[in-house]
Design a protein that fits this description.
This protein has 404 residues and is of the alpha/beta class. It folds into two domains: 293 residues, Alpha-Beta Barrel (TIM Barrel), CATH 3.20.20; 88 residues, no CATH class. It is 42% helix and 16% strand. Helix 10 links the parallel strand 10 and strand 11. The longest helix has 18 residues. The structure holds flavin mononucleotide (FMN). The site of flavin mononucleotide has 22 residues, from helix 12.
């Protein structure tokens, strides 16, 4: 069964368990009134607010929530047009232990039912889930957050987007220039929501500024900080600064996640060991290889002649087919599906440009056609396998169903 949340407009899929209910949503009234932007709950003394607790009690709450979520270590990073429900579910199947939604614009989300219906969907199995918003107005951000708090484990504030659109809209990493505003955003959510608030940040060029920033977030009521170890002007190709992430981890008492340069499970282990953080997030590498957290490694990261790896008996064609099936179950926009099919089949398309060109000129797409693209590539007899370590030491990190 698939239900549309009648008050908020977005879709909550419930294929296997029709009993998944919207009870919590229907019991909280004012903030869910559609579109008016008023009637926000006055501070409900949320269990996550820091105003009425000592710092110690507060960080304890942040930790007990994290522990209740079973301390996920392997996390799908937020990706606009990337980390939607079907892709999250594919990554979860292959070892991801938590996931972020793509960034959602808080004003559009608060005001437009159509936007909510198009941009957000979830299902019972899609947990733990971080729902990420961008914005710069506390009341609007809160209005947006109220609509999802029953369906997620953290409401996340995007403080890291460095793109021109974020500069124009004054959100994401450009809020690093206005820390009092950042503080008011976090405080607003932390004192009113029933789920904890997390923040995804970039680092400042000067380490002490990054540390002060992280402490400010913690003091404002943030329950978890994800640190992308690059500055606002840093390029994705630049190495992420794991030492800066380690300094943040040492400076605050709440859980910290590391982000940047996670391409395979060795990176995961190295990053955890170097930084001491609770978990890692990956973005770009997952687009290429959604099975990364299951210990599968793209051939790109296996050195020629290295006999420590073997064919993992899984290739990108298999992953595309699984992804398409998930998209049939959990519909998303076609441009998202196309981007993922491209991302996963990039190598195959490079060696068979005629099939790619046919794909490019196709005016109307269908699932049938996309499945046939994989079949045609397979018929050419070329495989781009994903590799696994022969020792399979990584298997101990897998959920049981992956070890069979
Ligand atoms: C396609 C794409 C979309 C992204 N969209 C978002 C987003 O919506 N919100 C966000 O905080 N970061 C976004 N990011 C940044 C990633 O979450 C991540 O911080 C960055 O890519 C560094 O991680 P990586 O080295 O694993 O790629 C995006 C990255 C990519 C590649």
């Amino acid at each position: 069964m698939t239900s549309t949340n009648s008050l908020s407009g977005f879709t909550i899929h419930s294929h296997s368990h029709t009993t998944y209910s919207l009870r919590r949503l229907t019991t909280v009234s004012p903030p869910y009134r559609d579109g008016d932007g008023h009637g926000l709950r006055k501070s409900m003394l949320s269990p996550y607010t820091c105003n009425h607790h000592t710092e110690h009690q507060y960080s304890e709450r942040a930790w007990s929530h994290w522990i209740k979520l079973k301390q996920p270590k392997l996390i799908v990073a937020p990706m606009y047009d990337g980390s939607e429900l079907p892709f999250r579910m594919l990554c979860r199947k292959y070892g991801a232990e938590a996931a972020y939604t793509p960034m959602l614009h808080s004003r559009s989300f608060a005001e437009s039912r159509k936007f909510r219906a198009r941009e957000f969907s979830t299902c019972k199995e899609d947990r733990p889930l971080f729902v990420q918003f961008c914005g710069n107005e506390p009341d609007i951000l809160l209005e947006a957050a109220y609509r999802v708090e029953s369906f997620c484990d953290y409401v996340d504030i995007n403080l890291g987007c460095p793109q021109r659109i974020a500069r124009t809209g004054n959100y994401g990493a450009f809020l690093m220039d206005d820390l009092p505003l950042v503080k008011s955003l976090v405080e607003k959510l932390a004192t009113n929501l029933t789920v904890p608030v997390s923040c995804k940040i970039r680092i400042f060029p000067v380490l002490q500024d990054t540390i002060n920033y992280a402490k400010l977030l913690e003091d404002a009521g943030c329950s978890l900080i994800a640190v992308h170890g690059r500055t606002r002007d840093g390029r994705t190709r630049e190495r992420a600064d794991w030492d800066a992430i380690k300094s943040v981890k040492n400076a605050v008492k709440i859980p910290v996640l590391a982000n940047g340069n996670i391409r395979h499970m060795d990176d995961v282990q190295n990053c955890l060991a170097t930084t001491g953080v609770e978990g890692v997030m990956s973005a770009e590498a997952l687009l290429d290889n959604p099975a990364l957290f299951g210990g599968f490694r793209s051939g790109e990261w296996v050195l020629e002649g290295d006999d420590g790896f073997e064919d993992g008996k899984l290739d990108r064609g298999d992953l595309v087919v699984e992804y398409l099936k998930l998209c049939e179950k959990y519909p998303v926009r076609w441009n998202i599906i196309i981007a993922h099919v491209y991302g996963m089949l990039r190598k195959w398309f490079e060696t068979h440009p005629d099939i790619r060109d046919d794909f490019n000129i196709k005016r109307t797409l269908s699932f049938e056609y996309l499945y046939s693209v994989v079949d045609r590539l397979r018929a050419r007899g070329v495989r781009f396998p994903l590799y696994v370590k022969k020792t399979r030491r990584w298997m101990s990190t897998l959920p049981f169903y992956m070890m069979i």
